[in-house]
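Please check this today:
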Amino acid sequence: MVFPKFLADCMLGKLARWLRILGYDTKYSRYLDDPKIVALARFEHRILLTRDKALAEGASDVAYLISSSRVEEQVQEVIKAFHLPYPTPFPRCPHCNELLFDIYQEEAKREVPLFVSLTFSQFKKCPQCHRIYWPGTHWQRIIQTLSSS
């Protein structure tokens, strides 16, 4: 199944991070002005997520107006609007949007805290920023938060 790709404007950095954690290809633009961010959304065939009414109206062919100010509600809004399922934990890097790859516990052991290396056996690494992730309690909290929204 192919999911839509997103581009979050400067008002939606937290939403971009949450969508990445859930596995959705989401770029985040902090510094582009409106014409450039719209052009980027069109060029890369992304849905522009924004809270800016004027921007959404001016780019209605690619923009989706986010109504909520709370990130948990924003995530629910995007999931409902685009009929998205909840995927497996951490397929994408929350920091840079790259797809993560599995690494062995032995490799992770050199870079994570001792407690983590002794407690978890599944690890993923980002090929871009080299950060390491594991399915800790933060993943359960995210799912719980989204389920209760």
In short: The mean pLDDT is 91. DSSP finds seven helices and seven strands in the chain.
